[in-house]
């Protein structure tokens, strides 16, 4: 069974909600408002690169 966790940055009003799940060799991402509509699966390395990119965008305004 996959355990999904909602992002701490998710909006309390129901917008911008993503959930993450740690799989044996990957990280899965899905929209919490539409959990059955699919998921994005990334390797841990690619997921780390995505986070670094998103954080650098936040730092630039």
Describe the structure.
The chain is α+β, with helices and mostly antiparallel strands and 61 residues long. It has one domain (5-59). It has one helix spanning 44-59, and strands at 5-6, 18-23, 26-31, 40-42. It has a 4-stranded antiparallel β-sheet. A hairpin with a 2-residue loop joins strand 2 and strand 3.
The H/E string reads EEEEH
Q: Which descriptor suits the 3D outline?
A: flat
Tell me what portion of residues adopts beta-strand conformation: 25-35%
Number of alpha- plus pi-helical segments: 1
Distance between the termini: 39 Å
- The whole-number mean of residue pLDDT values reads 87
Biggest beta-sheet profile: 4 strands, antiparallel
* Helicity range: 25-40%
Number of domains: 1
Strand arrangement across the biggest beta sheet: 1-2-3-4
Gyration radius from CA atoms, angstroms: 12 Å
Number of strands: 4
Category by helix and strand content: alpha+beta
**Uncertain stretches:** none
